[in-house]
Write a structure and sequence with these properties.
By secondary structure, this protein is an alpha+beta fold. The chain has one domain. Helices cover about 40% and strands about 15% of the residues.
């Protein structure tokens, strides 16, 4: 995706997408907001959207960080471990998805 590729410059290890708002039924959106607030607080995450499906990363991040989860929390695990490993993570505004 060109939006992510444009942000992957020198010194950037990962581009994590984010959306302005999620669409869907109100209960789903509300649960998503509570989840995001909870995990960003518990894990001291800096990003706006740990679950955005749009992400571009250098191979070095995959070679360095070992992921253990096989469920939906793998995105959270990846962002948390990459941040803790000191990788430079930037964000890019991506198209809205549900």
């Amino acid at each position: 995706m060109n939006i992510l590729w444009a942000r992957l410059g020198p010194g950037v290890d990962m581009v994590n997408g984010h959306t302005i708002s999620r669409s869907g039924p109100m209960p789903r959106v509300s649960i998503g907001r509570v989840y995001h607030h909870t995990v960003t607080t518990l894990f001291d995450l800096k990003g706006r959207d740990v679950d955005c499906v749009f992400r571009l990363m250098r191979r070095s991040t995959c070679d360095t960080v070992r992921l253990e989860k096989t469920s939906a929390v793998i995105c959270l695990e990846m962002i948390d471990k990459d941040q803790d490993a000191g990788f430079a993570i930037v964000e890019a505004l991506c198209p809205r998805h549900s």
